Amino acid sequence: MTDSLPDPIRAFVETTNAGDSDAFVAIFTEDARLEDWGRVFTGPEGVRSWDGTDNIGKQSHFDVVSSEPGTEPETYVVTLKVTGNGYNGTGPMTFRLHEGRIAGLTIAP
C-alpha cells in the first residue's frame, strides 16, 4: 500500500522499517514540527531526538492501514499499525508536506 502514498510519506515508512535514521531525518524540512501526543519536536535535531526515543530507536515497524487526503492542502491522514519495542497499536498520523518533504507531523489519539 505504500506505493499509493506521496513520496515523503512513503519514505517515512520505508526509512523507519529499514532503521535508517539519517535518511529518516532528511525527509523533514529544516523547520519541521513533529507533535507526538502533545510533545513537540522541531527541526532536524528535534526529529532526530524523537526518532531515537520513539521510533527507530525503539525498532518500530510500520504497516500502512489506510491513507486519505487531509482537510488542508498538502495534508494527509495515514493510519499506521505500529509494532516494535515501544508503542504498539494502530492510529492516525497527520502529515503536512512542503516542497517534497515533511513539514509537519501530528500523532494524536
Count of helix runs:
3
The tally of domains stands at: 1
Strand order of the largest sheet: 2-1-6-5-4-3
Question: Which spans have pLDDT < 50 for at least 5 consecutive residues?
Answer: none
Q: Indicate the mean pLDDT.
A: 96
Specify the helix fraction band: 25-40%
Q: Which fold name fills CATH's third level, the topology?
A: Nuclear Transport Factor 2, Chain: A
Oligomeric category:
single chain
Query: Roughly how many Å apart are the termini?
Result: 23 Å
Radius of gyration: 12 Å
The secondary-structure class comes to: alpha+beta
Please give the number of β-strands: 6
Major sheet, described briefly? 6 strands, mixed
CATH architecture descriptor: Roll
Helix and strand arrangement:
Blueprint: H1 7-18, H2 21-26, E1 28-36, E2 39-42, H3 43-54, E3 61-69, E4 75-83, E5 89-98, E6 101-107
Parallel strand pairs: 1-6
Antiparallel strand pairs: 1-2, 3-4, 4-5, 5-6
Structure description:
The chain is an alpha+beta fold and 109 residues long. It has a single domain (2-107), classed as Nuclear Transport Factor 2, Chain: A (Roll). It is built from three helices and six strands; from the N terminus they run ααββαββββ. The chain has a six-stranded mixed sheet. It is globular, with a radius of gyration of 12 Å. The two termini are 23 Å apart.
